[in-house]
Write a structure and sequence with these properties.
It is a single chain. The protein has 233 residues and is mainly α. The radius of gyration is 19 Å and the shape is globular. Helix 1 runs antiparallel to helix 2, helix 1 runs antiparallel to helix 8 and helix 7 packs antiparallel against helix 8. The longest helix is centred in the C-terminal third of the chain and has 37 residues. Helix content is 71%, strand content 0%. The chain has one domain. Keywords: Membrane, Transmembrane, Transmembrane helix. Pfam families: DUF5134 (PF17197). This is DUF5134 domain-containing protein.
């Protein structure tokens, strides 16, 4: 859960945007089964990440999320290792790396859901985290009530914090290549409009827009996940 109300709304808007794009990809004509499964996984991830920013999101059942995102991580890992599938990933420059990034994001979702109760113990009872955890009561069955998990004398163990920091920083940095690709595609669209030669000038405009939006979507998801991991500490 995000304590800062402004950041909570910003992340909600960000994940609402990625969910909308994932839904568009899911419903797009001509999409194959693999693309639809991948889009559905991203849609689910976006929706639940938005929910996790709010107190009521901590009451969502943890076990189904762990199972679903664990399966999604295996799915993207399969795509990363399947040469036939990685030959077409909406025009991305390195499809195998793109699928690997998605697999790591889904695995990070499992990590977040599993460790959220532990991370919440590191906040004082007067904070938004601790107060919400207390308000759920003993009967809560969602993420906030999952456990028990090992803690240190004053909260989460150093290993859990270290992993969360590393994952958070890695996903923030991983957003940069996706952003750069979206900008490159945008520049290609400008080149095509002015008649200048560019690396994507020969690609149809509709395809360029789809690839640029897809890259921007994954950049936003990666950045948002990184921020969520870091702010949960």
């Amino acid at each position: 859960m995000i304590e800062a109300l402004l950041l909570r709304w910003v992340l909600t808007a960000l994940f609402a945007g990625t969910a909308l794009w994932s839904l568009t990809r899911l419903a797009a004509r001509g999409s194959g089964l693999a693309d639809r499964v991948s889009s559905a996984a991203h849609l689910l991830m976006s929706a639940l990440m938005a929910a996790m920013a709010w107190p009521w999101g901590m009451a969502l059942p943890a076990t189904p999320q762990i199972v679903l995102f664990g399966l999604a991580a295996l799915w993207f890992a399969f795509l990363a290792g399947n040469r036939r599938r990685t030959d077409d990933h909406h025009g991305h420059g390195s499809p195998a790396l793109a699928h690997l990034h998605h697999a790591l994001m889904m695995a990070a979702m499992v990590w977040m859901v599993a460790t959220m109760p532990l991370l919440m113990t590191g906040h004082s009872p007067d904070s938004g985290h601790g107060g919400h955890h207390h308000s759920l009561g003993a009967s809560a069955s969602g993420i906030a009530a999952a456990g028990p998990l090992p803690t240190g004398p004053t909260g989460p163990t150093g290993a859990v914090v270290a992993v969360s920091v590393l994952l958070g920083a890695a996903f923030v940095l991983a957003a940069l290549p996706w952003t750069a690709r979206a900008l490159d595609i945008g520049r290609g669209a400008l080149d095509a409009g002015t008649g200048a030669a560019g690396p994507t000038a020969a690609v149809p405009g509709r395809t360029r827009r789809a690839v640029a939006l897809d890259s921007a979507c994954h950049a936003a998801m990666s950045f948002g996940m990184g921020v969520m991991l870091l702010t949960a500490l």
